[in-house]
Predict the 3D structure of the following.
Amino acid sequence: MELVDDHHNRREGSLMATVTYVRTIKFVAEILEEDPELLQAIVSNDDNLSYGSIISVYTGDDESVTALTDDGMDELEQMLKDARRSPQEWNDFLDSFVDDELLVARIKAKSPR
């Protein structure tokens, strides 16, 4: 899938990088060896990553898939790395970024690496 910058949305004199591909959350989870539900919970709040890093790809009338740009994947990877500095930081991170209590309990039951 290729995405291109709409020339009508550019501000005069500013340069924007063109996004030519994105990775689905499922694929990002495979690459980072993370739980896809955890990643989806984190990116469900688009304030957690820089603007434009999270892309919604509509696959039907009421269906969409979440995807990340390279920058979004890098940000997410760094966020998780920083959160895993200690078990306490990991638990605090999960409590702050994931609203699903069952998912938090399941993730906490695993080693924070």
